[in-house]
Amino acid sequence: MKRNKSMTCALLLAGMAIAGSGAVSASDIYKWTDAEGNVHFGDRPSGAATEERLAISSNPTDPDRVSAIVQARNDARTARNEAEAEAAQAEPTAEELRAAEAERKQKCSTYKERLQKFVTSRRLYREDENGERVYLDEEETLAARARVQEQVLEYCGS
User: Fold this and answer.
1) Whole-angstrom Cα distance, residue 133 to residue 150?
2) Averaged pLDDT of the chain
């Protein structure tokens, strides 16, 4: 634990030395191990026998590039959130699914009853705008039965 703490401090000091140097620079950082085996870093020579000089160079950060990267990440996050919101809205809830199933069953029952009436009735009719019965001819009757049969297939599935 002590070793990690001293190494962290040394790296922090090295980072501060690099940051303080401004533009592209090469700073000398010295690394040595003390008698207890702890590794140390510094910007000045210590005179220890295990000391070695590390040449560290750094480049300044391009703020425009960093801004572009941050903006791209934010745009991607926003797009992902919008897509997730749309997907959540597109998925029906359990209650909506139950209501749709109940409506489908009701329509199935209605169209089955209507088909039964169309098949058993001798003559089919419709009402005109005055409420008068207009009887269907054979061709219109067959077309009406076919339409109801299609609706039974659609809502009943068989």
Assistant:
1) 25
2) 84
